[in-house]
Amino acid sequence: MLVGGFGLCGIPMAIIQAVKEAGTKDLVIVSNNCGVDNWGLGVLLQSKQIRRMVSSYVGENAEFERQYLSGELEVELTPQGTLAEKLRAGGAGIPGFYTRTAYGTVVANGGFPIKYRADKTVEIPSKKKEIKSFNGRDYVLEESITGDVALVKAWKADPFGNLVFRGTARNFNPDCAMAAKFTIAEVEEIVPLGSLKPEDVHLPGVYVQAIVKANMEKKIERRTVAKSATKKSDDSPAARLRERLAKRAAMELKDGMNVNLGIGIPTLASNYLPEGARIMLQSENGLLGMGPYPSEDAIDADLINAGKETVTTLPGSSIFSSSQSFGMIRGKHIDISILGAMEVSMYGDLANWVIPGKMVKGMGGAMDLVSSGSRVVITMEHTAKGGRPKILKECRLPLTGTRCVNAIITEKGVFEVDAKKGLALIEIAPDTTIEEIQKATEAPFEVSKNLKTMPV
C-alpha cells in the first residue's frame, strides 16, 4: 500500500481510518514517514496492522521507533529522494535506476537491520546493492516500487479522476498514485467534468480509479509563527550559540543562489540572509522560494517546510512533487546545502541519521543532498555531551555520505575540508585559542596562513 503525504501534510486521513476500521493486517506500507503517535499512519501502527514500513524518516514518532527497536516492526529505511524516484520510476514502467545517493553507506553496502529480534540481535538485515561505474563515478542500483493500492490526498477532483493538489500537500501524492494498480484519491471537492482547465490538472485521471470526498481535520505537526516585535526573544546560552552559528552559516549564501537548509540551526540561517540578495530557499517536500514563518492569522496547514513547520511563499516561488524536488537536488540544480551533523571526519565523511540500536530518526533527504556534488556546509556544536569530539579521524556512526562535506562551522571556528588533504582552520572564534580547538578536535588540522577572526 502506497500512501501519500509528508508528515501530516497531504495525508488521506479518512481512508487511513477506514483501513483501521476494516482491520486489515500484515500491511507493507510505502510512505515517507508514519504520521505521529495518534494521527496519520500512526493509528495503524498502534493497532498493529503494519508488518513493514518502507520510509525515509522516523522523526518524532515514538511508537514507530519503539516497535522497530523492539523487533515488532520491520523497517526498510530508504533515502527520501530515492524513495520518491522508486515510486515515479515504478509508475513509469522503469524497473530500476542507478543513483549516486547512499554510495559508500550501509544503505548500499547492506547489513543494516530491517528487523530486530527481541534480544536486539538482527533477524533481517538489508541486502547489498549492485554498484556500477559511469564516467569514473560509482552509482547504486535501486529497484523501483509498485503497489497494489495507493491512498492519496488531493484538493479537487473531477469525475474522470483528474486531480489538483493544494500547496505543499502535493509532496509524495502524485508519485504514489502513479505507482499503484488501484489508486483511491481522498479529495475535499469534486467539481463537474470540464470545470478544471486542462493545463491546471496536476495529475491526470488515468492514474486514479476511485474518489472519496471527505473533509477531515488538517492537523499541523509544528505550528510555527513569525516572532512578534513585542515578544521577548530567547536569550539563553543555547539560543545565543544557535544564533551565532546561523549568522555565520548565512555568510555562505550569495545573490542568485538556490539553497537547501536542513532542520535546526541551518533553518535559522534564513533569518540572516544578505540584504538585497535574491536567494531562493528550497524545501525538499516540494517548494522552491520558501518565505518566512506566517503570522497567526495566515497559518496554512497545506503549506509547510521539510521540518513540518508552517511557512509562506515568496514572489517567484514554485511548488512541485517530491520526485521533481529530488530530481532538482540530484541534478545539481541546488547550489549549496547547509546541514547539521553528529560526526564529521577529517576528509569530509558525514554521519547524522542514526545511532544503531538506540536512536533512529532516519536519513530523510540528507543522503540525496550530500551526494549531489553541490557544496555541503555543516553547522554544529564542536563537541557532544561530556566534551566528546565530533570532528574525528574517522566517523564511528553509520555514514550519510562519503567525502561530501566542504566546510564545517562550529562555535569555535570554521574549517574548510579537502577530500584528499583534510582539514584547514580558516577562521577562529575570538573567545578561543588554537590550543583549545586542538584539544576539542580528534582529527588533525592545518592552520591557514590567512587565519581570520570568526564574526560573532
Describe this entry's structure for a reader:
It is a single chain. This protein is α/β, with parallel strands linked by helices and 456 residues long. The protein has 2 domains: 2-213, Glutaconate Coenzyme A-transferase; 238-453, Glutaconate Coenzyme A-transferase (3-Layer(aba) Sandwich). Helices cover 18% and strands 29% of the residues. It contains 11 helices and 28 strands. The protein has helices at residues 13-22, 42-46, 62-69, 80-91, 106-109, 173-178, 237-250, 265-268, 322-330, 366-370, 434-439, and strands spanning 2-3, 27-30, 50-55, 74-77, 96-99, 113-116, 122-125, 131-134, 137-143, 147-157, 163-164, 180-190, 210-213, 258-261, 280-283, 287-290, 313-319, 336-339, 343-345, 350-351, 354-355, 359-360, 375-379, 391-392, 407-409, 413-418, 422-428, 445-453. The strands form 7 sheets. Strands 17-16-15-14-18-23-25-26-27-28 form a 10-stranded mixed sheet. Strands 1, 10, 11, 12 and 13 form a 5-stranded mixed sheet that branches. Strands 2-3-4 form a 3-stranded parallel sheet, with no helix packed on it. Helix 4 (80-91) crosses helix 9 (322-330). The radius of gyration is 22 Å and the shape is globular. The model has no long low-confidence stretch (mean pLDDT 94).
